[in-house]
Known about the structure:
The complex is a heterotrimer of chains A (366), B (430) and C (219). Chain A is α/β, with parallel strands linked by helices. Helix content of chain A is 45%, strand content 10%. Chain A has 18 helices and nine strands. Chain B is of the alpha/beta class and 430 residues long. Chain B folds into three domains: 3-131, Fumarate Reductase Iron-sulfur Protein, Chain B, domain 2 (Orthogonal Bundle), CATH 1.10.1060; 140-291, no CATH class; 305-415, Rossmann fold (3-Layer(aba) Sandwich), CATH 3.40.50. Chain B has 23 helices and eight strands. Chain B has a four-stranded parallel β-sheet with strand order 2-1-3-4. Chain B is globular. Residues 425-430 of chain B have low confidence and may be disordered. Classes of the chains: A alpha/beta (366), B alpha/beta (430), C mainly alpha (219). Chains B and C meet through helix 2, helix 3, helix 8 and helix 16 of B and helix 2, helix 4, helix 8 and helix 11 of C. The complex binds iron/sulfur cluster (3 copies). The site of one iron/sulfur cluster has 15 residues of chain A, from helix 13 and helix 14.
Amino acid sequence: MTQFNMPTVGEQLRENGISRRAFLKFCGLLASSMALAPSMIPKLAEALEKATRPSVIWLSFQECTGCAESITRAHSPSLEGLIFDTISLDYQHTLQAAAGEAAEQARDEAMQANYGKYVLIVDGSIPLGNAGYSTIAGVSNLDMLKQVAKGAAAIIALGTCAAYGGLPQANPNPTGAVAVADIIKDKPIINVPGCPPIPVVITGVIAHFLAFGLPALDHLGRPKAFYGQNIHDRCYRRPFYERGLFAETFDDEGAKQGWCLYKLGCKGPITYNACATTKWNDGTSFPIESGHGCIGCSEPGFWDFGGLYNPVSLPSSLSSQHVVFATGIGVAAGVAIAALNKQAKQQAKQTREPVNVDQLNREVQL
Amino acid sequence: MSELSLERGINTLKAQIDAPIASFFSSCVSCGMCASACSFYTENPEPRYTPIYKLEPMRRVWEQNFTLLGKLKVKLGIAKPVTDEMLSQWQELVYNTCSLCGRCSLICPVGNDITYMIRKLREGMVASGHVPEGLVGASTRAVKIGSPMGIKLPALQAQVKHIEKATNMQVPFDLEGAEYLLMLSSMEIMNYPEYLEAVGKILTNAGKTWTLSSECFEATNSGIQIGSSDIAKELVSRVVNAAEKLKVKTVISPECGHAYTALRWEGPNLIGRPYSFAAKHIVEVLDELREQGLLPTEGMEDAKLTFHDPCQLVRRGGVVQQPRNLLKLVASNFVEMTDHGTLNWCCGAGGGVSANEDANEVKMKAFQRKKKQLDELKVDTLVTACANCRIQLEEGLEENQMDLPVVGLTELIAEHLVERNTINEESRHD
Amino acid sequence: MSDVLFLQWVKGPLFSIAVMIFVIGVVLRLAEILSLGRAKNLAVPKGNPSLGGWREIGRRFKVDQGTFQQNKITVIAGYVFHVGLFIVMFLLAAHIALIKHSLGVSWPNLPTPVVDMAAVLSMLALVVLLIDRLSQPVKRFLSRRNDYLVWVATFLPLLTGYMTYHHLWLSPQWLLGLHILSVEALLVLFPFSKLMHTFTLFLSRWYNGASMGLRGVKS
Ligand code: SF4
Ligand code: SF4
Ligand code: SF4
């Protein structure tokens, strides 16, 4: 589907002087992170070669730029970075050179030129409270999202804020933050959650989209290829969990021995992400490996899981005060009900009349 | 005074329900184990004979009057009320198929004292007029004549004369300041006159002063069996008055299970104060004499014999070791049944069952349990310490064509008694 | 509702509410029972009542031979179930963490597969007990809706807990949420059902034992 104004990804790469060898290596990396069989690498490469270089508009709402950091600050020269060379990032107000009206103009132009075909990447959540909580060039996030989404072929909700509301939405959610999917209902949305998402996962999703179209998504809108595995199931500390060996503090003997971090609040058991297999920083390690429990960042509402350092099994609002309080009420109500019981019994005792044998005889003769 | 009625029955039950009962009903897990503890069920396995089920009317009264959920159910009109019809159906369960033997109370894994509750449920049955005729008759005779079997003083006096003639022993009446007041059961007077003679011999031989009371000789208490604390109180007061009038130290309850329960455990609570005297079962007294060396015996029974523990003595009275001590004095081949002591099986006729003609059939069925125990042992003699058990055992054995003599423990001891006077004289001669 | 919202809800407010109903209910029920009082026994005691009470609390964990022979399934499956449930409830690390959090006390945990095994045995025993309840005339006759309801309420937390551990069927959030929800149902039902025997059985044994102790009955 080559178009005159849109070179293919392959053309673009060659233009940028990327060797075929480097390209194939990149494809290999993507394939493995997507859990594709090695035999799929040539197919991926071929598909990518032929894919149209898409126009991408990246909107940043209530976010911290961590997601953009995640992908751009990767080691250089980065293979992940390659993908950026293959797309036409027409608007990203943190990265682009243009600013102010010029920037907004670039966005308008890109939208018009590629209406119905461009990809929209969103990071950050959208405030539904006061529109003034977050605006870009005087336009509320909500309006801008609706406006840009209209002409998008697909939306990638990048990071947990865009995907599920994230930190801005954490209790008590002062801005009324919501996720992209809460607003846009008529476009395909790929959620790429994580706080931030793993760089190779981001590029992998984009590559997958370019090569094969929309990936298969799980019930939370995440690409199954990257989010299909439970951290706890893949965790190298799992044998300690099974044996019931837990670090109790971050500096005890258990922690030094590399025991399971469950009691220190690890959310691995309820988290789906690629950390345990793909790892971070060019495959160096991941949080659990460096001694900190998983915080469950790729799951909706992870900020409100009852404390980053509380075990998953802990109730999030119950405290011993509740128990004391309930005991108090119980005792008070108990005293009242005891009084009723006592009274009822007393009354029965007082009104009881003695029985004599004559009465009994009359009964049996009836 | 108003007539007996459902309302009075329920009211009485409400007055009976206490913390233990509320706890028992709250604890029951419907495990059914109490059924396997009760010979009325095991020998006649109908689910409704399960001990805890016998208490259903009381459970309802408890639930509907003393629990939040129950009261709510009543308000919503979904509670099943206790009706006259229900109570008349339950009469069979509460009286005919329960001997208040206490076995279920011992077995229940959560610790429910079912027997305690059945005893109290009977109070409600009485107040609502759902009682077996036989027990009403016995109670009436006990209150009006002084003995559930209608025995009057002259009959006892005649028997006493007979004993005095035969043994040369003085049987004192109304001896003030005597150490022991000897109480009897009508069954003994009627069926086992040997008992009075035996106790008399033993006490006299031990050098103890003892007496009968002409005002009150009956120790059994039909009020306890029918479950009327009013009648029971009247009857036990007679014993207390007689004992206190004669200023005795100890009242001896006869070889009878429930008389002991009535006198020893319920009595003080019925009259609302502790006694000024001690109340003991004859077996306890005999064992004390043995300990003090006042019960010299000679000769041993070499027949293989076993002991049937009266329920009220073991499970409800804690008298377990004493009869065994005594038996060892005189029996060389004493064997125990598999379930003995506190685990012993009821003869089938306690708790008013024997006085209740409606229960004749189930009573004999329940005896099958005892029969099984006896069949296992193949003994020559069966000893017991309760006249009521003894009659049931004899009847049951006869009905099952088993040729096995049943002996009262006191008589057995008396047969082997060595006269202390003789000993003393002999030693003086030396 | 998403699985996470559900989990947050059951872990948060709902759990607090359930625990409070449980605590209030249990205290209330105990007050209801104890308020009915017990008349002082005026008979001269032959033994020590409270000693008897304590003795019976311990002794009733044992079953005599004859009774055992007649109630093998009830006794064996009953024991397996109760011991298993105890292990699962009080020796799983996740549960100990919860207890520590709400009551401030804690103790060592067992290896997870051991607890898992206990849960499986406990569930098996419950199934056996249910079959027994349905097939034995006496038990079936005695059983009310309460008995079956309580069976379900006890079985579900075991089952959902097992499924959560093994990641069966649903997402872990759903499963953990359902597990907590089933426990909440159990907690709410507890004071108003025969589950109360957990506490009252000690009272019952004590009362019965005290009466035995008073009479000098040693079993
Ligand atoms: S550290 Fe976390 S993910 Fe790893 S085994 Fe322990 S609980 Fe599971
Ligand atoms: S007291 Fe004895 S006879 Fe009565 S129900 Fe219990 S076991 Fe059966
Ligand atoms: S043995 Fe106890 S718990 Fe079991 S059914 Fe009978 S009374 Fe209830």
